[in-house]
Design goal:
single chain; about 220 residues; alpha/beta; five-stranded mixed beta sheet; 3 helices; globular
Length: about 220
């Protein structure tokens, strides 16, 4: 009986220490974000993390073979799930903004092509013309941190296409009050702190698997 109690205490302490380690790791990531400048991770960049992980014991994401980002535009909700031989587990839930009702939005299953922190924004010609009608001269390259950089703190480029266009992303925003509404041009917008959290989670998963093991499902 005594041995069982001791065993349970040791298991609890191990799990608790892992939890504290994960929190400190994420805190470090958030602090370093402000100093990294524009940084890009794509499927040809095997390691982006500044943290070296020796195994998956301290990382829940490392236990999954597939990571699924599911966006339900009927509810403007994003669900991040981990999948392995034991089944599917919901890891994170986020409120997001999706396309305006009169816009043809991307749907179906796709992947991520690249991830950028503190990103530049390359608006399309249509976007530039749209801003010009509102009296705003938008540059072809909007610098990171600029007041008109609609990418916010991070952008995650997707493979989804609509009528041949593949300029759809998950990204931050310059106005977090709009999160939860239908007001984008097809992209998925998140709160800046939450898109950074998502990037952290994706990067951690990629350290153990690959970008090809991430599925993005848009409904």
């Amino acid at each position: 009986m005594r041995q069982q109690v001791i065993k349970k205490v040791l298991v609890f302490l191990t799990l608790f220490s892992s939890f504290l380690y994960a929190d400190s790791l994420e805190d470090k990531y958030f602090k370093e974000f402000s100093a990294v400048g524009t940084k890009i991770l794509d499927r040809y960049t095997p390691k982006f993390s500044t943290f070296k992980k020796v195994d998956n014991l301290l990382s829940e994401t490392g236990a999954y073979k597939t990571l699924i980002i599911e966006v339900d535009s009927s509810k403007n909700m994003m669900y991040v799930k981990g999948k392995n031989e034991k089944g599917v587990k919901k890891l994170k839930t986020y409120k997001v903004s999706t396309a305006k009702k009169d816009i043809k939005k991307p749907l179906g299953v796709g992947q991520i092509t690249s991830i950028a922190l503190n990103p530049l924004w390359y608006p399309t010609d249509d976007t530039i013309q749209s801003f010009k009608k509102r009296g705003i001269d938008l540059p072809k390259v909007v610098p990171a941190g600029h007041k008109l950089n609609y990418m916010g703190s991070a952008k995650i480029n997707l493979t989804h296409k609509v009528d041949g266009k593949d300029t759809f992303r998950i990204h931050g925003t310059i106005d977090e009050k709009t999160i939860g509404s239908y007001e984008s041009s097809g992209c998925i917008r998140m709160k800046n702190s939450e898109v950074i959290q998502l990037v952290y989670l994706l990067n951690e998963f990629i350290d153990f698997r690959s970008m090809n093991d991430i599925k993005v499902v848009l409904k």
